[in-house]
Specification:
Shape of chain B: globular
Number of helices of chain B: 7
Strand content of chain B: 15-25%
Strand order of the largest sheet of chain B: 1-9-8-5-4-2-3
Oligomer: heterodimer
Radius of gyration of chain B: 20 Å
Helix content of chain B: 10-25%
Largest interface: A-B, 21 and 18 residues
Distance between the termini of chain B: 84 Å
Helix content of chain A: 40-55%
Number of strands of chain B: 12
CATH architecture of the domain at 20-230 in chain B: 3-Layer(aba) Sandwich
Largest sheet of chain B: 7 strands, mixed
Number of domains of chain A: 2
């Protein structure tokens, strides 16, 4: 009740806003050093429910490190990270203990890596790879696992007659679809994509992007997408953040950044496109 | 009285081969392992006159526990008469002066590779299993320090991944040995390479089971009367090997664990794997109660559920 009335007052006093929800993801002051090298330097970001945030930058700009921190794989040297979700709202996820952190990682966050070897067990069945997430979350019924794997794989448009083939015999595009199905298995609130289509040929890339776009539209998923491919960013994301040397140099709506870049580095990046 | 009479006479080896410090360490580690059922206790594995991988883990525990009154039985793949078992038995008696037997019920210490005997072991008996790989998480987590963290968190979900693969491929659990089991509701163990058939025998056993890996330097235990549950899916119950219809060619026994002897014409004959039990049947000595009766029923009612296959 108290919440509702204060929200109401805030809504009355604030300037008109497009998004009334609080941000799903809020990270402030993220900093990560590797020895003397500063990989991510005081980066803050907010992502709203149902929004796709693109992160662009050249190799070594810190975008993958940022994503690993958002996936709770790495602890930052400084900064906080909250997800506005039932049960963990307001909780700094970096302060959680190992067990709770893993539970949040498994149940609330899905991730697709550029290299499927990082995200998949190549010698286990594809359906087993998807079921693994549910197993870690505590599901112990074989029939339920099969059904969940089937549902998740078909959502990522993976051919179901191959669901029991190991990823090592699949093509690159199919491996990415298995990764996507694995990421979606627990119906996570936040999806992290690390160069999901890099290394695929253009036609396959287009179909994988189609799948991602459809899923995002149907499930209103919140996505952080890391890519150096401006085409991918333009297709999927609502907002863009440009990173260089671990810092955010420019951020804004996708059209605005890609059509009218202000920062010299962003201008260079946009015009470097073949 | 001379000084010579007061000192301990010079001997080539100390009692039980291992020196005092080694035995003291092993006994302390054993106590710790019993106090935390299923927890892998690290220990300093000593050099022995047999090579690592030939039962040094089990042998060290046996040597630390053996005394002149002990009666020792050594089993290798169920057999008392294999070269490896005979060597270990001779070494243990020579170093300790203990008695030996092939009768499961007469023994106080049983050192075994691959099998738990067919006859129900009693209170006061200790079964020492030789373990090649103590880490049940190895198949899903090759990093041993991460695996230690998973044990600490009781984070065992991934153990079902191996079972999932078996059910997908073969529609049933097919793991031949080391079937992962949850001890006392807390730690998952890899119960040595005992066959699936023997895994339920650990549940609420009156005897003490010690598992020791000499090469990996880990020791763990299942104390008497402890819950041991083989991992299973909630809708597909754990099963032992299906050996229905297998009849021992010498004793005519059924529903005990059999060795399969392939014949030249492509058929197979079977014989009891437990040679001590077979010897009793052959000599018409009444054997003790067995874990699985002649109809194949397990001695703990309701522990093994009727089979169910995935759709």
């Amino acid at each position: 009740m108290l919440m509702a009335s204060s929200n109401h007052r805030a809504a009355r006093l604030d300037a008109p806003r497009l998004v009334q929800h609080p941000p799903l993801l809020r990270a402030t002051g993220l900093t990560k050093r590797y020895g003397g090298r500063l990989a991510v330097d005081n980066v803050s970001l907010e992502v709203y429910p149902g929004e796709v945030l693109g992160v662009v930058g050249e190799s070594g700009s810190g975008k993958s490190t940022l994503l690993r921190m958002l996936n709770l794989e790495e602890q930052p040297d400084a900064g906080t990270y909250t997800l506005h979700l039932d049960g963990i709202a307001g909780q700094d996820l970096f302060a959680l203990d190992r067990f709770d952190r893993r539970q949040v990682q498994i149940q609330r966050i899905g991730v697709v890596y550029q290299n499927p070897h990082l995200g998949l067990r190549m010698r286990f069945t594809s359906s087993g790879n998807v079921a693994e997430r549910l197993l870690i979350a505590g599901e112990r019924s074989f029939e339920t696992l099969r059904a969940a794997a089937r549902e998740s794989l078909s959502a990522s448009e993976f051919p179901l007659d191959r669901m029991d083939d190991p990823p090592r015999v699949l093509s690159g595009g199919m491996q990415q679809r298995v990764q996507l199905a694995k990421a979606l298995a627990m119906k996570p609130a936040l999806l992290l994509l690390d160069e999901p289509t890099t290394g695929l040929d253009v036609s396959i890339q287009a179909t994988v992007l189609d799948t991602l776009k459809r899923l995002q539209r149907e499930r209103e998923m919140t996505i952080v997408l890391v890519s150096h491919d401006l085409g991918v960013i333009r297709t999927l994301s609502d907002r863009v953040m440009v990173m260089r040397y671990g810092q955010v140099v420019e951020a804004g709506l996708t059209d605005q950044i890609l059509d009218d870049p202000q920062h010299p580095y962003t201008q260079q990046l946009v015009h470097a496109k073949l | 009285m001379t000084l010579r009479e007061l000192t301990t006479p010079q001997q080539d080896y100390s009692y039980g081969y291992l020196d005092t410090y080694a035995k003291r360490e092993l006994r302390r580690r054993t106590l710790k392992a019993i106090a935390i059922p299923g927890y892998q206790v690290p220990y300093a594995s000593r050099e022995l006159p047999i090579a690592r991988g030939w039962g040094t883990g089990g042998l060290q525990v046996t040597l630390a526990l053996v005394g002149p009154e002990s009666v020792v039985k050594v089993i290798d793949q169920g057999a008392d008469d294999s070269v490896n078992a005979a060597n270990l038995r001779r070494f243990i008696t020579r170093m300790s002066g203990c008695g030996t037997t092939t009768d499961t019920l007469q023994a106080t210490l049983l050192q075994s590779r691959h099998r738990i005997p067919e006859e129900v072991m009693q209170e006061g008996q200790a079964l020492i299993l030789q373990v090649p790989d103590p880490e049940p998480l190895r198949a899903v987590q090759p990093d041993i320090s991460k695996a230690a963290g998973m044990h600490a968190d009781a984070d065992y979900g991934q153990m079902w991944l191996g079972l999932y693969e078996q059910l997908v491929r073969f529609k049933q659990y097919v793991q031949g040995a080391s079937y992962p089991s949850l001890v006392n509701g807390r730690y998952v163990i890899s119960p040595s390479p005992i066959p699936r058939w023997d895994t339920p025998k650990l549940h609420q056993a009156p005897s003490l089971t010690l598992l020791s890996a000499g090469r990996e330097k880990r020791l763990y235990a299942v104390p008497p009367y402890t819950e041991v549950r083989p991992l299973e899916f909630s809708d597909i119950p754990f099963q032992v090997e299906d050996q229905r219809g297998w009849v021992c060619k010498t004793t005519g026994a059924e529903n005990k664990f059999m060795n399969e002897l392939p014949q030249a014409d492509g058929t197979a004959q079977y014989e009891l794997s437990d040679s001590g039990y077979a010897e009793k049947l052959a000599n018409e000595v009444a054997p003790g109660a067995t874990y699985f009766d002649d109809q194949g029923r397990f001695y703990v009612d309701g522990f093994l559920k009727p089979p169910r296959r995935p759709a």
